[in-house]
Amino acid sequence: MLLVSPESLSAVVGSIYEATYDPTQWAAAIGNLENLFHGSKACFGRFGPDIRANDIVATHIDETFQLRYIEELAHEENGFADAISAAPVGMVYHDHALVGDALKRSRLWNEWMAPQDMYGGLGCKVLEAGSSYWYFDVQRGYGQASFETADAELLRTIVPHLARAAEIRRKFQSAQHLASTFSQLPFGVIVVDGHMRIATVNAAAEAILRRPESGLLAKSGHLVAANAGSKAALQHLVAHACSARDDVIPGVGGDLLIRTKRRGAGADLGISVGPLVNRIEELPFGGRHAAIFIREISLELPAGFREQVRTFFDLTPKEAALAARLASGMTLKEAAADAHISIHTARSYLDSVFLKTGTHQQSQLVALLKSAQPLIRRP
After folding, report:
1. Which of 214, 196, 371 lies closest to 273, judged by CA?
2. What is the pTM of this model?
């Protein structure tokens, strides 16, 4: 019978929660679980589509061996994965009883489990989300005693903590991915649910929300437009983006202009709202959400604009400088004066810019240049 002191159990559970907030501690936490059950190997991870190496934390890991498993065996049909997938969340199982005699005849057993001294396992599916599930498995090796009822009872005590850890780990990894995806965009991104509750914002959106004159603000965790008309219009677009037909096809959302300029100063906000379409297991939050993209609309050109149009249209530095001045709203005469060149020289540059951009009028050129604003923030 497995005898575990309350102090030992508390220490192991504590290490699980420490790992949820410090991913570098996961290997130690799973190692503690292996020792608690006197196992030969233990693992904790996700099984499902697009499985990656960092989805699985295991003890005594051979990186080459694990990579081979992910590349060859993880995507191959096997009775073990199918049985765990069909098992209820929270049910503690013995792997041989769950799968049956077919386990020892499988490629998984012969090429993955047996070579790693995994001869009898105790496990549990601790969390399920979409087409993915998270599981814990501890094994005993050849010659060791099989897991008994006391071992299963101990695991049932730990499972709720593993389930919470799996949920936090899922949200942490997804939030990191989402944050890195949005962080470098030069326009604001805010993700909200159908009730306007804010799930995440990127740095550009945070800057907009901090400005009292921007027309948008965060209030008690909700996104609010300062103007009553804009508030109602934004809520309508978000509700539409979070809706679904036949519980499958998301709503479309739409566009909105929030006017914030006063006497020609400042910038209006161009808002585009659309559904955040993703597998639920890849999102750090549940339920339907909308992505709100925010761009400031003003005559000021974004950082890097001159270099961007120079690269796009193969302009010389002086041609790009003139083009940028025109795009900012200057006349040709004003642009020439600002650049300290003659109007004759400015016209010569403009003729070259027309040729390279395929335009024939200054209004055409400005419209084209505005459409070529950079989408990636440069360091």
Report:
1. 196
2. 0.54
